[in-house]
Design brief:
Layout (H helix, E strand, L loop, with lengths): L3 H36 L7 E5 L5 H9 L4 E6 L10 E3 L12 E7 L8 H14 E10 L4 H15 L13 H11 L1 E7 L10 H4 L4 E8 L1 H12 L1
Parallel strand pairs: 1-2, 1-4, 2-3, 4-5
Antiparallel strand pairs: 5-7, 6-7
Length: about 230
């Protein structure tokens, strides 16, 4: 009983309800917590490129909390309602010259790359465009249970918005390998991010989230130049 139209309507209603519940229970706290962690790691007066800026909520709050920071975004499909200035990009090549920003920032973006090569390319591009720092908020998956938990969280948080979900989560060892390949070294790392209130934090918090400030390894750049000269 009930044709495809009715099923689609029920699915749409279900997704709308889920989106509203997630907004009330998680989104506001997540934005506040992440903003504080990010602001603490961005130097005063820095120019920041927010890669995959979405609706610009986090970036705009960063700018409000530290008015000395200038911030703009790039997004695969820029939203007309984005709260910061945002340009389109193809998801691979950042449309800015080398060393044109002090900080390049990814907030829950890299795990949406289609594969490991996609993560490596984006990090390499961020390193090219940044004069000094790359700032990342993303996830850690060290076990099958971690993966399933993150998969569920991603589906609840992003499926109602039609976001593509490749579930491309990485372990700490994998992240460290990407950083090294891109010529980045970890200046600070925190995987105790209180995104969720108790009791949800016992399942969805743990050490599934991290914020890392990475600095360009000038020795890596020098080695690359030497290898090209040989």
């Amino acid at each position: 009983m009930g044709g495809p139209e009715l099923k689609d309507e029920h699915r749409s209603i279900g997704l709308s309800l889920m989106r509203g519940a997630h907004q009330r229970a998680v989104f506001g706290r997540r934005v506040r917590v992440l903003t504080d962690f990010l602001v603490d790691r961005i130097p005063a007066g820095a120019s920041v490129l927010d890669i995959g800026s979405g609706d610009g909520t986090v970036a705009s709050l960063v700018a409000q909390k530290n008015p000395s920071v200038s911030i703009r975004g790039i997004e695969f499909a820029p939203r007309p309602t984005c709260l910061i200035e945002c340009d389109a990009f193809d998801g691979t090549t950042i449309p800015h010259p080398s060393a044109s920003f002090d900080v390049c920032m990814f907030v829950d973006v890299l795990h949406h790359a289609p594969d490991e090569q996609g993560i490596a390319r984006l990090l390499s591009e961020a390193c090219r465009v940044s004069r000094r720092f790359v700032l990342i908020k993303d996830h850690l998956s060290e076990s099958r249970f971690d993966f399933r938990t993150l998969q569920f969280m991603d589906w609840v948080g992003n499926r109602p918005h039609g976001v593509v979900l490749p579930y491309n989560y990485q372990s700490r060892a994998q992240w460290d390998r990407y950083f090294f390949q891109a010529g980045l070294k970890v200046q600070s790392w925190n995987d105790r991010i209180p995104t969720y209130p108790f009791p949800f934090s016992a399942l969805f918090g743990r050490r599934l989230h991290f914020v890392a400030l990475l600095e360009k390894d000038q020795g890596h750049v020098t080695r690359q130049i030497r290898s090209l000269d040989e």
